[in-house]
Amino acid sequence: MSRLAATFERLAQSGRKALIPFVTAGDPYPDFTLPLMHAMVKAGANVIELGAPFSDPMADGPVIQRASERALAHKMSLSRTLAIAAEFRKTDQITPVVVMGYLNPIEAMGYEGFANAAQRADIDGVLTVDLPPEEGEQCAALLKERGIDTIFLLAPNSSSDRIEKMAAIGSGYLYYVSLKGVTGAGHLDAGDVETKLKQIKSITTLPVGIGFGVKDAETAKTVSSLGDGVVVGSALISKIESNQDNPERAQEEIIGLLSSMRQAMDS
Q1: Cβ–Cβ under 8 Å, residues 76 and 25
Q2: How far is CA 223 from its chain centroid?
Q3: 59: pLDDT confidence band, cut at 50, 70 and 90?
Q4: pTM, to two decimals
Q5: Domains of the chain
Q6: Which residues contact 13 (CB under 8 A, 6 or more apart)?
Q7: Are 17 and 224 contacting, i.e. CB atoms less than 8 angstroms apart?
Q8: Among 17, 64, 193, 223, which one is least packed by beta carbons within 10 Å?
Q9: What ranges in the chain are assigned the alpha helix state H?
Q10: Catalytic annotation present for 49
């Protein structure tokens, strides 16, 4: 059983939901990311989405776009993102790490070269924002051979046929984008999310993580009652952006927010 499957099963058995923070590797500088990952686990994170910075992160709002720019200014890359994941794995054999990013750097590395590098880094999943299932079978197959899950994004307007296709190719969990728009935009409608989750759950038994609108503990608690996991990104990156000259405070504020989310989700 993969780390992701084991994590979601363990949480389900205890009646809890996954807290899944996203951070951009190398933001605001490369040495910040690894200790932050360990600190997030201590604060209650169950899965970590580690963003590979990209120059044209089209699904992301301005907060995460600027995070990519800061990381790229420090020469961060997909290879260096995987290197951080590999360092994390040396002292944490339990927490799954999902590398989240865009297709261009993977294609530049080559699907097989990327799959081999991901295996050496001992990551657990790959979420490629702009790789649709119609074009993702080759990459997903190479990752599956190496025990790595391929995670797809579902949108509010995803049809039943498309959900079925993503569930057939994907594994680990499905990421439901709770609103139309980029990361950090708008406010999610719990009623709409609940209706869509019923449709998704009627098609697949894969866990579903919900993101793109989670900003605080109250939202995390609401979302956790609807799906299997809560993904939070922009709210964390905002803490980094507002404390670039004080990384210790940035980490403290991130840990504070995650701890409050974990407490609210478990209450």
Answers
A1: yes
A2: 15
A3: confident
A4: 0.95
A5: 3-266 (3.20.20.70)
A6: none
A7: yes
A8: 193
A9: 3-13, 30-42, 62-73, 78-91, 103-109, 111-121, 133-145, 160-169, 190-201, 217-224, 234-242, 247-266
A10: yes
pLDDT higher than threshold 50 for residue 184: no
- Amino acid 179: pLDDT: 65
Q: Of 27, 49, 149, 241, which one is the catalytic site residue?
A: 49
Tokens of 87: 């360092």
Percentage, residues of the chain above pLDDT 90: 87
- Per-residue DSSP letter, 184: T
Q: Supply 77's token pair.
A: 């890359």
What are 54's two structure tokens?
């990209």
Is residue 13 classed exposed, middle or buried when 0-12, 13-18 and 19+ CB atoms within 10 A define those classes? exposed
**Predicted confidence (pLDDT) per residue in 214-232, tens digit:** 899 999 999 999 999 999 9
For 235, the token pair is 């709210």
Q: Please identify which of the residues 27, 60, 241, 253 carries the catalytic annotation.
A: 60
31 is catalytic: no
Per-residue pLDDT reduced to its tens digit, 203-213 = 999 999 999 87
Which DSSP helix (H) or strand (E) runs through 10? helix 3-13
- Which residue, 195, 241, 192, is CA-closest to 212? 192
Neighbouring CB atoms inside 10 A of 253's CB total: 18
| Local confidence band at 60 (pLDDT 50, 70, 90 cut-offs) | confident
For 128-167, how does the pLDDT look when each residue is reduced to its tens digit (9 = 90+)?
999 998 899 999 999 999 999 999 999 999 999 999 999 9
Residue 219 in contact with residue 184, Cβ under 8 Å?
A: no
